[in-house]
Design brief:
The complex is a heterodimer of chains A (163) and B (786).
Chain A lengths: L1 E6 L2 E6 L6 H8 L18 E4 L2 E4 L12 E3 L1 H4 L8 H8 L9 H14 L5 H7 L11 H21 L3
Parallel strand pairs in A: 1-5
Antiparallel strand pairs in A: 1-2, 3-4, 3-5
Helix pairs in contact in A: 3-6
Chain B lengths: L10 H5 L15 E7 L5 E7 L1 H4 L4 E6 H4 L37 E2 L5 E7 L2 H8 L3 E6 L6 H4 L15 E8 L1 H9 L3 E9 L11 E7 L4 E6 L4 H13 L6 E4 L16 H12 L3 E4 L2 H7 L6 E9 L5 E13 L6 H4 L2 H4 L10 E10 L13 H19 L3 H8 L8 E2 L5 E2 L4 H12 L4 H10 L2 E11 L7 H6 L8 E7 L5 E5 L8 H13 L6 E4 L17 H28 L7 E3 L2 E3 L7 E3 H10 L11 E7 L8 E11 L5 E11 L6 H20 L31 E4 L19 H16 L10 H13 L1
Parallel strand pairs in B: 1-12, 10-11, 14-15, 20-21, 27-28
Antiparallel strand pairs in B: 1-5, 2-4, 2-6, 3-5, 7-15, 8-13, 9-10, 9-12, 13-14, 16-17, 18-26, 19-20, 19-25, 22-23, 23-24, 26-27
The chains are: A alpha+beta (163), B alpha+beta (786).
């Protein structure tokens, strides 16, 4: 089936079988290999992308279901080569990734959390992260990184307030 | 530079999703392979009909065991139980065999590879797999190791009488039995240290390429031991020259022990790439991983501790049945024996100890190593016994531990089972952990929880973990059929930049940063001028890989030695240029100089350039700066520590909350505290998973009931609080840096500490892992009714 969607702001079009998963369209047809596949059953969260701005597990969506949507992958989140956005920079500072395989999905998922809740509590972060499995870090460094982003948001807000 | 908490530089590529993993590699013209796996735990293959599959759209090849019987050799096993008689399936080279690449005549576990299909797309390959018809003649299945040893059990391998791979022992049997017979107090426990699944988030993958012009094979693969796998695959499976096979394991998405093994897909994609003249790619699914990638733990044990009424442990004995599954994995039988058996005395000075392990084949997935393997099982049995012993004689469990720990003046200490503990101060680590947890007022904490309707429990686990594998001669006696040294190569470019190439392989341990820190520290130059190469057998010197918490202490020592030799040569070259004695040359932060002679100054890059030109060399000195070191440690190293878990239990639901977790670990000199912290935290959570939720469950037919991440629970971010971590530093005498292993050590006591805490909270003698809310609820009900 001819499927049209927008990926990272760029119109994309492909002929796909109705059974092809969105993640396979992204990785195999469009060559966007930053999105990973960890479990094929929607449990591990490595394949998280944004569909119309909302986190979605791209191994649990058919490509044809994404017709007409705006999809954002890790490649669409990235700034210029070698640079890290504030969330990525905090994850770097806290060593919030080890093998790196679950990381793109985590970054996408946490990006949505911070957009909805710019200053999340530890509990909110942990609860949000239940959709993403990580076997390396034990999650602590990831939670610390998000708390740091939240603290930085506070700091910046504080600086903006006239004294 | 060494010892600084530098954020790993390779993390940038991971955070941007740009770092390439094996499944991201798809060369032009790639074909895709799918594997058909056995649906029977044990059966004879009567007939395989591939005709329909071969006629499916896009299918390029269908392969069964018969097609490759004279083309691919069986997989080998290279770590066998040391020093004892053992029995294996055959291999034409006379080495222990580990089963065929594709099943021949018989299947022995559900998940065993039976046939392969190659097609133009992965979807087509999987479609065709479903069209292969196999007539099986089912045979009796055995999944329990003790049942497998009975006379009536089905026999898995013709060359393995009674399904017994080996009966292995260590220690003083008679002395231990006599001490137990004469003891004032005897504690006995039956333990099932349940099988758990390593479950790295990246499933395994392999991409085979063949260059017909040169006859070169290239395998991109998820491997934690690429050099070993190159050797074993070329010489013992494919039968091709070592020179013709290159392995590349760019980034590996976690392993926890499971990617140090040979699997059928590796030779298959190479063989098929040559046959078909196109690259062949295979990527596993999660359920495929759970049915075919090696799993860990799985010891069934009867254990005994003997002691005096005043708290002195006099003996410990362990009888274990290790279920290694249907075939020996590449290093499984070795993992199942010495690493567990020799470790059972833990951090205690115990006069008599004996361990015996029955290594048994059954119709389940092959067993291998899993983070903390052997040492975690040993820790669990000893630390459960110590808690029971303390309760039996009415003593505090911390006091019993302190009373029996090897005192710090007794190192090096021979534990009587084959380990010589290198250095340590076990009691200090435990005391520090107790201080962190507020052990002195734990009763008040208990009362406070009770007022909230919750039961609080505290659990201690003290450990010592053999790491830094290892001295090659010693490992040969432990049954390792290969060396266990590690390598490093440093090449200094004329610009003063450095290419550091290591034989070790990262699966998430930040090698590109930590190894550069070692070289930067010795050479006193910036990290930015050092690039670390790894993971490609064509570029790196032969190395053994990452396992047994060895990379930093063994591989890092090779880097340290190579950098030291570079420094020595540079100093010699500088002295010659300065026309002074070497002893008159100072070196500080990249500058060679001579005191009081300011004109005699050369930078690191100046000296590198001088040696590159080679125009004014000291007579006899070779031009250029390059050193390769192969480091074989004098002995293992023994990190240690104590963990204390505090849990609260909801009396109505049985829900378990880990409310506090203190870990004091000593891994000797620390290279990068940020990286070590990450290893410790991840290790503890891995142990928490075994304690509370993880179990590979097989039914009587050998069917894995927990074959995806819905039915197999793994820890998620809400399952634990932040941990309270601290450290003592006791350098190892066996390497220049004083380093000890740190990658898996914190897993060793974690499941035990949590189990002990839950037993304490419930006031029960024992509760088997995984300790689910249901088990806790039932235990609470039993207490109420009794």
């Amino acid at each position: 089936m001819r499927t049209r969607l927008t990926v990272n702001g760029v119109p994309a079009e492909a002929d796909v079988e109705p059974r092809v998963l969105l993640v396979d369209l992204l990785r195999d047809t469009l060559g966007l290999t930053g999105t990973k596949v960890g479990c094929d059953t929607g449990q591990c969260g490595t394949c998280v992308v944004h569909v119309n701005g909302v986190s979605a597990k791209s191994c649990a969506i058919l490509a044809v279901q994404a017709e007409g949507t705006e999809v954002t992958t890790i490649e669409g989140i990235n700034g210029p080569p070698g640079e890290l956005n504030p969330l990525q920079a905090a994850l770097h500072a806290m060593h919030g990734t080890q093998c790196g395989f679950c990381t793109p999905g985590m970054v996408l998922s946490l990006t949505e959390l911070l957009r909805r809740t710019p200053r999340p509590t530890e509990d909110q972060i942990r609860t949000w992260l239940t959709g993403n499995l990580c076997r390396c870090t034990g999650y602590h460094s990831v939670v610390r990184a998000v708390l740091r982003v939240a603290a930085e948001a506070d700091e910046q807000a504080g600086l903006a307030v006239p004294r | 530079m060494l010892g600084r908490p530098l954020p790993p530089r390779e993390d940038v590529g991971f955070l941007r999703g740009e770092a390439k993993f094996t499944a991201d590699h798809t060369p032009p013209g790639t074909l895709h392979m799918a594997l058909l796996r056995s649906e029977h735990g044990h059966a004879r293959i009567l007939r395989i009909d591939t005709a329909r599959a071969a006629a499916m759209p896009g299918v390029r090849a269908v392969l069964t065991g018969a097609d490759i019987a004279d083309k691919l050799m069986p997989l080998p096993c290279v770590w066998i139980p040391g020093g004892v008689e053992s029995h294996f399936p055959p291999h034409p080279y006379g080495v222990p065999g580990a089963g065929f690449v594709l099943a021949q005549e018989r299947v022995r576990f559900i998940g065993e590879a039976v046939a392969a299909v190659v097609a133009e797309t992965p979807y087509q390959a999987h479609d065709a797999i479903n069209e292969i018809r196999i007539d099986y003649d089912p045979l009796p299945v055995v999944v329990d190791p003790r049942e497998a040893l009975t006379n009536t059990a089905p026999q898995l391998h013709d060359a393995v009488p009674g399904n017994l791979n080996a009966y292995w022992t260590c220690g003083d049997k008679d002395g231990t039995d006599a001490a137990i017979a004469a003891a004032e107090v005897v504690i006995e426990l039956d333990i099932v240290n349940q099988r758990t699944i390593n479950n790295p988030i990246e499933p395994r993958a392999a991409v085979g390429e063949y260059d017909a012009a040169t006859g070169d094979y290239t395998l991109h693969v998820t491997s934690q031991s690429p050099h070993n796998h190159r050797f074993l695959l070329s010489a013992l499976v494919l039968g091709i020259p070592f020179n013709k096979l290159r392995l590349i394991a760019t980034n590996v998405g976690g392993s926890f022990g499971s990617k140090g093994y040979l699997y059928p897909d590796m030779p298959l994609v190479l063989y098929l790439a040559k046959e078909l003249g196109q690259p062949v790619k295979w990527v596993d699914t999660r359920s495929g991983l759970m049915r075919s990638t090696v799993q860990g733990r799985d010891h069934t044990q009867k254990v005994v501790l003997a002691g005096t009424r005043d708290g002195q442990i006099t003996a410990v004995r362990c009888t274990s049945w290790s279920n290694i599954g249907a075939y020996p994995s590449t290093i499984g039988p070795g993992v199942a024996t010495s690493v567990m058996g020799r470790s059972i005395t833990g951090p205690y000075a115990i006069p008599h100890a004996f361990a015996e392990v029955h290594v048994v084949f059954t119709n389940v997935v092959p067993l291998g190593a899993q983070r903390g393997s052997g040492r975690a099982e040993a820790n669990y049995l000893m630390e459960r016994l110590v808690d029971r012993y303390a309760a039996q004689i009415g003593r505090d469990p911390a006091a019993i531990r302190l009373q029996n720990m090897v005192p710090r003046e007794k190192f090096p200490y021979d534990n009587g089972l084959g380990w010589i503990y290198d250095s340590g101060d076990y009691a200090t680590a435990l005391r520090l952990a107790l201080t962190h947890v507020g052990y002195d007022d734990i009763e008040e904490q208990r009362d406070e929880a009770r007022e909230r309707g919750r039961r609080l429990g505290v659990g201690i686990a003290s450990y010592v973990a053999v790491c830094g594998i290892g001295p090659s001669t010693r490992m040969s006696k432990e049954g390792m059929l290969g060396g266990t040294w590690e390598s490093a190569n440093i090449r200094v470019h004329p610009t003063g930049e450095i290419a550091l190439t290591i034989g070790s392989q990262s699966t998430g341990q930040s090698h590109e940063t930590v190894f550069a820190q070692i070289a930067a520290d010795v050479l006193q130059i910036g990290m930015d001028s050092i690039v670390v190469f790894r993971s490609d057998t064509q570029k790196a010197p032969y190395g053994q890989g990452t396992y047994g918490s060895r990379s930093f202490s063994v591989g890092g020592s090779a880097v340290h030695l190579a950098a030291t030799r570079i420094m020595t040569k540079m100093r010699e070259a500088a002295a010659y240029c300065f026309e002074v004695d070497e002893s008159d040359v100072d070196y500080l932060e990249g500058v060679f100089s001579v005191p009081d002679q300011p004109e005699k100054t050369k930078t690191f890059a100046d000296v590198a350039m001088t040696l590159w030109y080679g125009w004014s060399l000291k007579p006899g000195m070779e031009p250029m700066l390059e050193e390769t070191v192969y480091f074989d440690p004098a002995d293992f190293n023994y990190p240690f520590g104590s963990h204390v878990a505090v849990v609260e239990i909801d009396q109505d639901t049985g829900e378990i909350d880990v409310v506090k977790y203190v870990a004091v670990d000593d891994c000797g000199t620390v290279g990068n505290p940020l990286v070590v912290q990450g290893q410790v935290e991840g290790s503890i959570v891995h142990g928490l998973g075994q304690a509370l939720m993880e179990a590979a469950r097989f039914d009587a037919d050998g069917q894995l009931l927990t074959d995806d991440l819905r039915s197999y629970a793994m820890p998620r971010a809400t399952d634990m609080p932040f941990f309270d971590l601290d450290r003592t530093v006791t350098p190892s005498p066996h390497n220049q840096m004083g380093a000890k292993g740190s990658g898996e050590t914190a897993t060793v006591p974690a499941a035990t500490a949590i189990s002990n805490a839950i037993c304490d909270a419930l006031g029960v003698r024992d509760i088997p892992m995984p300790i689910t809310p249901e088990k806790v609820w039932r235990a609470l009900q039993e207490r109420r009714t009794s």
